[in-house]
Design brief:
It is a single-pass membrane protein. With about 100 residues, the protein is mostly beta strands. The protein has a single domain, classed as Ribonuclease Inhibitor (Leucine-rich repeat, LRR (right-handed beta-alpha superhelix), Alpha-Beta Horseshoe), CATH 3.80.10. It has one helix and six strands; from the N terminus they run βαβββββ. Helix 1 links the parallel strand 1 and strand 2. The longest helix is centred in the middle third of the chain and has 4 residues. It is globular, with a radius of gyration of 12 Å.
Length: about 100
């Protein structure tokens, strides 16, 4: 889905999806209810979108996530416990 003209993470993908790349898609806001649908994600690329903040508990259902790319966004606020639940993360959160 890289480069697609999206404003949100799609909610109709296979819930068993393990790799999701949504870079350069104009996504402005994350929705925890949609992310909840993809609890099996191991790789999530949200780089180069228009994200400005990461809300509390945003990734709480992504317990299998190993790589999270958020670089190239306009993130100015990361709320407390935003990354709560990322137990499998291999120290790879890309923010810059």
């Amino acid at each position: 889905c890289d480069g697609a003209s999206l404003f949100d993470i799609p909610s109709l993908l296979d819930p068993r999806t393990k790799r999701l790349s949504l870079s350069n898609c104009n996504i402005r806001k994350l929705d925890a209810d949609i992310l909840e649908l993809y609890a099996d994600l191991e790789y999530l690329d949200l780089s180069n979108n228009g994200l400005e903040d990461i809300g509390r508990g945003m990734f709480r259902y992504q317990t299998m996530l190993k790589i999270l790319k958020l670089n190239g966004n306009r993130i100015s606020t990361i709320q407390r416990e935003a990354f709560l639940g990322l137990n499998s993360l291999q120290a790879r959160i890309f923010l810059l």
